[in-house]
Write a structure and sequence with these properties.
Elements lengths: L8 H20 L5 E9 L3 E5 L6 E4 L17 E8 L7 E4 H18 L3 E10 L2 E5 L3 E5 L18 E10 L4 E5 H19 L5 E9 L3 E5 L4 E5 L20 E10 L4 E5 L11 H4 L5 E10 L2 E7 L2 E6 L21 E10 L4 E5 L7 H8 L5 E10 L2 E5 L5 E5 L21 E10 L4 E5 L8 H7 L5 E10 L2 E5 L5 E5 L12 E10 L4 E6 L2 H13 L1
Amino acid sequence: MAAIILPTEKQTRSEFAKLLEAKETQVKIEEGNLVKGKVVHITNDYVTLDIGFKSEGQIPTNEFRNSQHQITVQPGDEVEVLLENVEDENGMIRLSKERADALKAWDTLVKIQEADGVVEGVVIGKVKGGLAVDVGVKAFLPGSQIESRPSKNLDKYLGKRFKFKILKLNKRRGNIVLSRKGVMEKENDTLKEQVLQNIRVGQVLEGTVKNVTDYGAFIDLGGIDGLLHVTDMSWGRINHPSDLFKVGSDVRVAVLKFDETNQRVSLGYKQLQEDPWTDVEGRFPVGSRIKGKIVSLTDYGAFVELSPGIEGLVHISEISWNKKMKHPSQELTAGQEVEAIILDCDVVARRIALGMKQLKQNPWEVLVQQCPVGSKVQGTVRNVTDFGLFVDCGVGVDGLVHISDMAWVQNFAHPQDLYKKGESVDVVVMNVDPDAERFSLSLKTLQNNPWETIRSRYPQGTQVEGKVTAVHLAGAVVELEGGMEGLLPKSAASKEIKVGDTLNLVVQTVDEEGRKFHLVIASPMSLSNGAKQSKSK
């Protein structure tokens, strides 16, 4: 009879432990569970893992590749995977690393949301309404949650890693909504608090241009924005803040004011540069002659840059002695190099007054010497206006012959009835006033005053005969006996009248003050009465 060999106590305990371990393994190896496996083989297509089951499992190699398409495991490595199927039709175990990672990611995201924490992720693409982000699983970042201000260029975020807050999370639907703005605002609040605690007037800070407006630029100081006003950008004149500053550029600024209550910071840029006005009186003394470039034209004058940060104003009245201009652009252009004289320098008000006409001889001084009052001069009609003639007498200043000084009797409607532009005339100087810049001339002074003769020989109602010498808008000019001329107004003519016609007339108006000596056509009745009166005499 064969002997029966019973196991020792030590052997019994060892076998029991193996059976227990096998039992626990069977419990863990169930579909839908996460299991640990050891990499046993790697090919171009699959990674084979031993998860302690009767057969091995395979996972596509692509699930183990990183963004550079490199395989991240090697034989012997232990990885955690999801058991999708215990045994398929080929007798293989179906596993998934991607789904395992997703499940672990979801668990991690739930914990982060519950703790009000922050998750990191990479922007992987643009989608309708925002961006797609990889945070272990695919999540949605709305456009309104990318930054504090809406961004039009979403391409700049692609491929970059950021921190996000979780706004919504629904594991069952696989829906995650993120916010980068929330993280930024929280970080800004922390930075803002630090900046506010340390900021001091006069402090020099590094910042980034956040926005540029017509009146200045907003500088991000790290959690708080400061305003750099256009007047504190440059000691000189600038057309627009965008000429000096661009959004996104770094800049050093000085703190000029700090309102702790309203958390407002006023900044300065030009204050970090030497003030060019400190020695301006020494460099630009009154009376000195300077050269500069016109940088701006206004209705009232031209601004000339004398040196960087220093500008002077040539008032429109200081451009020319005799040219009356409505705008400096009639004589000057922006960018033009000019010479001028320093007329005044006010360092306190930071104003320099310039003059250009002072570089030329004052024509009014020449006028006083060459054209004294009462002298007869010859000139050329420069312009004809409703109120008279401007005559160039060759001294750089045009004199005015007022319509009242053109003739003793005004037998014309408009000065152009008698004179044309470019015509040569002799005139008498009536007045020269350099202070008021008035130069008055007269044409009638060279003629004999006819009014004494008119009053004595041609009182109102007198019958006369005359010959038409000119016809214009006012009427017909009629020459009477002795060379005296009167006007037959157009309204008083009963028929068409032409030069050379001889007319029988009656004196209608004698007005020396108004310079009117008007005639009318004599009626047959007045002619017969006039004949009888002549016989009786």
